[in-house]
Structures are given as C-alpha cells and as structure tokens.
C-alpha cells in the first residue's frame, strides 16, 4: 500500500506527524472517501482528513476546538459530556435562530445515533458551532465549538448527510508508524467484506448470519430472526445470485465501526446497485453487525431492462459505424457464424468500411436467463444499407454484469 502523507505544513502545533498512519479512517478500495472529520477530545483538535486512493490518507486541515466540560462519553441529558462514536452532520441551524454564543454557523450531529439509542444514551442538540469568546479547553455543555472564523472555514468541507464525524476520547490508539501493521489493518477489512459477501452469494447461511449480532435490526424493522427468515426465503426463490462489493471505506471508533461500500447484486430476474452501510459493535465474540441499510445509486433494473440498454448501445455503435466501440461489445472468447473473435473483427471491419447509412431494427424479442449471469436474446432483425436489405433471426449469447456485459456468441438465420 502507498505511504500515507499527512500534510500539516501550516500548523503551529502539529500533533500528527508525517510518518503516522491513521487507522480511524481506512480507504480499502475506494476512489475517494470525501472529507471526514476526526475529533480528538484529548488534544482538543479537529482534523479534516481525506483519501483519494486506496491505502492513502491525508490530513488537509486542522482546528483548535473545545468540547464538553466533563470528560468521558455522553450518557444522559445534561451530563456536560461530548459523545464519542461515529456521527453524521444532518442539518445546519438557520443563522436567524443562532444567538451570539453559537457564532455565525452551527451544524447538527445525529446524536443519539442508532448505537447510542440501543445503549440507552439520552440527550440531543449536539452541534458543531462557532463561539463568541476565546477558545479554551473543555468549556461547552457537550457540543464541539470552534472560533467564529474557523467554523466558517470548516463549513466548506461539510456535506449534509454525507460528512462523517468520528469523535474519539483520544486519537493516539489510532496512530501507527509501522507500515506493515497499517497494511494488515487494510487487509483485515478487505477480507471481512469479501468473506461476508461470499457467504451471502453462496448461500452459506450459518456463516453469513454469524456476522450478525443477536440484537440486529435492519432498516425495515426486522430483528435477526425475521431477517434470517426473509433472507432464507429469497434463497429458495433465486437459483443463483452474484454479489460484487468494492469501493470499501472503513470508519472506526471504540464504540462502533461503519463500513461503506458499493454493492452490486445480480439475480436471474433483476440487478441492483447502491451503497451498503453496515454498523458493527464490539461483542465478546468480536465485531458484529447491528444495523445495515442500502441506498440505491441507480434505479433497480429487470433483466430485460438492462439487456435492452446494452442492445441499444450496441445498435447505436453499429449504425454510426464506430467499429472500435462496436467490437468492444464482443468478448475475446466470441464465436459465431463460423468466426472466432479475430476473424469476426476482420469480417465486421470490412463490412463497416463498405456500408452506407446502415439501419437496424428489432422486433419479436425474447430474453432468457440460461445460466449464472448468462442470457440468450433472440429477435427478428432488419438490416438495410444503401439499397440493400435483409431480415433474419438473430440470437445473441450475452454474459456478465450490467456495465460489463459482452457478447460471447452470435448466430443469424435468414427469415423467408
């Protein structure tokens, strides 16, 4: 994994050194983590960190802060403690509602979060806000406060309902200087996500449900027993499924760990893609999942829908005579109409060179799922170009996930 480079050249007091690796935020395989805020209560500092490549994390800003008057994790209303765990900034208080003591801006944290509520913690109105007086250590009633100019600067990093805030009693235990230990931490989470997904894909029920706490509840309100019954019922419906997980980001604290990753799910009848969010808490048997939710990033598609999109793009490349794009729809193992892939490329290249204004039509289309991520599509194809035309039955054998589909076989029979 690449070395983390922590840039704090402008800081007056640097508490994170350039040789440090921070394990509170781990980019296992994501393109970007976006901005993540880390609050170190012991140092009374807030760090803005970001990763734009797996295994790399950079501190891009730091701020002096003040937190609750009393030390420790928040437990109840009025205890003057700042909560510890993983939170999200869910709103901004309108400026007209802020008195001078809160400065020019205030952002609300989702305290109490799911883990807090299951632990019986109480309280509300935990904010990150400005301050109309000099910053001194531990002077708030539980909020996180910055100087007025700095809360306005911090606001540029905040995306409501997206920006995580990891609040730690101390960042010290999440600083490591050994590259091997850092890489082991990355690999540990990569393995956990991979093994969880594999047990789901293969229907290894005991292994899969072993990742879940007995106190688990999903976003639909099902407890572990109902969740298991629901998932087991789906196993009887689908003869196979493909689960692909990537873009993994891990946020950790002593209270909870959050896993975010892209989930692509393919069954014989539909495809879905979105962000899966798992919340794990420490138990005697290790970390267990207590909550999960899924946020679709594209609309769920039936098999017929995603194959139709593929065929439309294939036709568009054919009609526009974009030979490289057209051939990219074919797998290197392709065979059909007496050609292997190399012969097919040459045959089509020659045809494209001579065709003038080709037009293709499809009708009477039939789609069949014939195996794991394998589909047979048959249709009546009409073709015409520069006065020539023909009609015939085209059969395509297509394999892969949506976004990575390819034609592995093609046959055509004249229709008379």
Number of helices, where a helix is a run of at least 4 consecutive DSSP H or I residues: 8
CATH class categorisation of the largest domain = Mainly Beta
- What topology, given as strand order, has the largest sheet? 5-4-3-10-6-7-8-9
What is the CATH T-level topology of the largest domain?
Answer: L,D-transpeptidase catalytic domain-like
Helix content estimate: 10-25%
Largest sheet: 8 strands, mixed
Write a structural description.
It is a single chain. With 416 residues, the protein is an alpha+beta fold. It folds into 3 domains: 21-174, L,D-transpeptidase catalytic domain-like, CATH 2.40.440; 179-299, Nuclear Transport Factor 2, Chain: A (Roll), CATH 3.10.450; 302-414, Nuclear Transport Factor 2, Chain: A (Roll). Helix content is 22%, strand content 36%. The protein has 8 helices and 22 strands. The protein has helices spanning 114-118, 148-154, 179-202, 205-209, 224-237, 303-319, 323-327, 341-354; strands at residues 21-22, 25-27, 36-40, 45-50, 58-64, 85-92, 106-109, 127-129, 144-145, 164-168, 175-176, 242-252, 257-266, 270-283, 286-296, 301-302, 330-336, 339-340, 359-371, 374-385, 388-399, 406-414. An 8-stranded mixed beta sheet has the order 5-4-3-10-6-7-8-9. It starts with 20 loop residues before the first strand and ends with a strand.
């Amino acid at each position: 994994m690449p070395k983390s480079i922590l840039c704090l050249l402008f800081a007056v007091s640097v508490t994170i050194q350039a040789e440090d690796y921070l394990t509170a935020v781990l980019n296992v395989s994501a393109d970007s983590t976006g901005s993540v805020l880390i609050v170190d209560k012991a140092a009374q500092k807030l760090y803005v960190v970001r990763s734009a490549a797996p295994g790399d994390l950079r501190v891009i800003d730091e701020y002096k802060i003040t937190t609750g008057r009393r030390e420790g994790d928040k437990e109840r209303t009025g205890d003057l403690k700042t909560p510890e765990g993983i939170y999200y900034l869910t709103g901004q208080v309108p400026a007209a509602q802020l008195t001078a003591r809160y400065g020019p801006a205030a952002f609300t944290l989702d305290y109490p979060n799911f883990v807090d509520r299951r632990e019986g913690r109480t309280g509300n109105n935990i904010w990150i806000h400005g301050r109309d007086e000099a910053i001194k250590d531990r002077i708030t009633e539980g909020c996180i406060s910055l100087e007025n100019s700095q809360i306005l600067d911090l606001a540029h990093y905040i995306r409501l309902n997206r920006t995580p805030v990891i609040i730690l009693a101390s960042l010290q235990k999440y600083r490591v200087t050994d590259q091997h230990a850092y890489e082991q931490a990355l690999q540990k989470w990569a393995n956990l996500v991979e093994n969880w997904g594999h047990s789901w894909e293969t229907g290894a029920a005991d292994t899969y449900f072993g990742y879940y706490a007995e106190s688990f509840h999903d976003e639909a309100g099902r407890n572990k027993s109902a969740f298991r019954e629901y998932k087991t019922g789906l196993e009887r419906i689908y003869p196979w499924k493909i689960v692909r997980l990537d873009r993994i980001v891990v946020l950790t604290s002593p209270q909870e760990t959050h896993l975010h990753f892209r989930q692509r799910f393919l069954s014989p009848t539909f495809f879905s893609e979105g962000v899966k969010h798992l919340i794990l808490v420490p138990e005697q048997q290790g970390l267990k999942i207590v909550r999960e939710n899924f946020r679709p990033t594209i609309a769920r598609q039936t098999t017929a829908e995603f194959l139709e999109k593929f065929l439309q793009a294939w036709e568009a490349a054919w009609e526009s005579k974009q030979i490289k794009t057209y051939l990219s729809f074919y797998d290197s193992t392709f065979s059909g109409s007496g050609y292997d892939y190399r012969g097919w490329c040459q045959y089509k290249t020659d045809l494209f060179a001579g065709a003038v204004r080709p037009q293709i039509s499809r009708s009477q289309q039939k789609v069949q799922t014939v195996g794991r991520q394998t589909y047979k599509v048959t249709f009546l194809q009409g073709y015409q170009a520069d006065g020539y035309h023909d009609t015939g039955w085209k059969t395509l054998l297509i394999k892969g996930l949506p976004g990575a589909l390819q034609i592995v076989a093609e046959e055509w029979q004249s229709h008379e």
